[in-house]
Amino acid sequence: AAAPPQADAVGGVVLDRVSKRYGGQAAVDDLSLEIRPGEFLSLLGPSGCGKTTTLRMIAGFEHPDAGDIRISGRSVIGQAPYRRDVNTVFQAYALFPHMTVAQNVAYGLHERRVARVELRARVAEALAMVQMRRFADRKPSQLSGGQQQRVALARALVNRPAVLLLDEPLAALDRKLREEMQLELKLIQAKLGLTFVFVTHDQAEALSMSDRIAVMRDGRIEQLDDATTIYRAPVSAYVASFVGQQNFFSGVVSAVGGEVQTSYGPISTVSTGLSVGQRVRAAVRPEFVELATGSPPGDTNRVEGRLIGVSHLGEAQQYLVQLGPELSVIARVATPLAPKLQIGESVWCSWRAESVQLFPDDEPIATG
Ligand code: ATP
Predict the structure, then answer these.
(1) The CATH number of the domain where 11 resides is what?
(2) Nearest CA to ligand 1 atom 16
(3) Strand order in 66-71's β-sheet?
(4) Nearest Cα residue to atom 31 of ligand 1
(5) Which of 26, 59, 83, 170 has the maximum number of C-beta atoms within 10 A of its C-beta?
(6) DSSP code string of 23-67
(7) Is residue 62 lining ligand 1, measured as CB closer than 6 Å?
(8) Atom 2, ligand 1: which residue's CA is nearest?
């Protein structure tokens, strides 16, 4: 397929019907993807869906069995990794322990025989970008995990690749540091205008950083969209459950327009185009569920249950309401508005028809 010229410009990446099999198993299955120059694109999905294999094929560490890969408009099939206009940052930073920070960052430039004056300037510039200049003379063992990861980033940036490939680079960091680095990575990417291809299984990370997210499943892309669309308009129950939380109700489309019969009562929706009798899953995000101790008005979109848990998330409170032995509903309310409820208390959950999304009930729910 012909890619739009943008993805074939300098810094763009095109995967055209790429497949990779291990034994009899397809790790990547006829995957096509166009990444624009300067874009922050995440490959998101559960373990084993083919994210890393995809990234390694762009890097040149793995070779596709079929399909074409183009970087900056040129096919890289058969081209060695070091000849491609990309650099990879791995989760395990793999710094040379006997070298200083500056020597680690300079290593690639040495190999390419960059002149001494230029080399020094570029190392200083790369270290400044990741705020590590004052650690230039330290050994990796004298750095924290976050600082080591910054050095690994500087080592990739110093080569000035058009495309930076990142394979779960923040996974080893503790949560607070990871969130700080997410912000910094995004700032560096925006400032340099580099193309970032970022592999993660962490949906919150993908949502917070990416221009676009490719949600992967079994070696294919299930949905490719910006974060807002992925979250608000997932194309399948798989995406809906992998990105953010969902309450799912199984049911059957009833004869009443836009209504679904479930064992917990009728759910009304604004969905159209469903056939009567079709089995569906109705999905409602926790932030759309309202809580009340009395019965809310109306006959649909309300269920009664017992409050079995409250968790404090900081900015919000999360309530777990058990409807029956098999099903509970999660409700999330911004902390300033959160009602004071007793565990064991009977509560009503309700939501608006506009908040309900329907998916065919023929697919498994993602776990990740
Ligand atoms: P994770 O987040 O766990 O790394 P992933 O989404 O990156 O998962 P891949 O590492 O790309 O997934 O693996 C995709 C599939 O290919 C998996 O089923 C995996 O077991 C298989 N696979 C990957 N590399 C190899 C290999 N070198 N040999 C055999 N099978 C492999």
Answers:
(1) 3.40.50.300
(2) 27
(3) 25-35, 13-22, 66-71, 74-75
(4) 22
(5) 170
(6) TTEEEEEEEEEEE-TT-EEEEE-STTSSHHHHHHHHHTSS--SEE
(7) no
(8) 47
228 Cβ contact list (under 8 Å, min separation 6): none
Q: Which atom of ligand 1 has the smallest separation from the CA of 168?
A: 2
Cα 104 to ligand 1 centre (Å): 29
* pLDDT score at 368: 45
Q: What parts of the chain have a pLDDT lower than 70?
A: 1-5, 93, 363-368
- d(CA 65, CA 215) in angstroms, rounded, equals 22
Q: How far apart are CA 67 and CA 15, in angstroms?
A: 8
Q: What pLDDT is recorded for position 149?
A: 87
Q: Is residue 263 domain-shared with residue 214, that is, in the same domain?
A: no
Would you give the distance in Å from CA 315 to the centre of its chain?
22
| pTM score | 0.89
ipTM over 0.85: yes
| pLDDT value, residue 364 | 63
Same domain, 193 and 60: yes
How does DSSP assign 104-151, residue by residue?
HHHHHHHHTT--HHHHHHHHHHHHHHTT-GGGTTS-GGGS-HHHHHHH
Domain count within the chain: 2
Which one of 18, 31, 51 would you pick to mutate in the ligand 1 pocket, going by the greatest count of ligand atoms within 8 A of its CB? 51
The reply to whether ligand 1 has any atom less than 6 angstroms from the CB of 44 is no
254 occurs within a structural domain: yes
Give the number of the atom of ligand 1 that is nearest the alpha carbon of residue 28: 14
Asked if residue 296 and residue 261 are part of one domain, the reply reads yes
The phi, psi pair for 231, rounded to 5°, reads -75, -45
- Answer for the pair 40, 17: CB distance below 8 angstroms, yes or no: no
52 lines ligand 1 (CB under 6 A): yes
- The whole-number pLDDT of residue 365 equals 63
> Phi then psi for 99, rounded to 5 degrees?
-100, 155
Out of 43, 47, 53, 63, give the residue to mutate to test ligand 1, the one with the largest number of ligand atoms within 8 Å of its CB.
53
The string of DSSP codes covering 289-328 is -EEESSPPSSSSSEEEEEEEEEEE-SSEEEEEEE-SSS-E
Instruction: Name which residue sits closest to atom 9 of ligand 1, judged by CA.
Output: 50
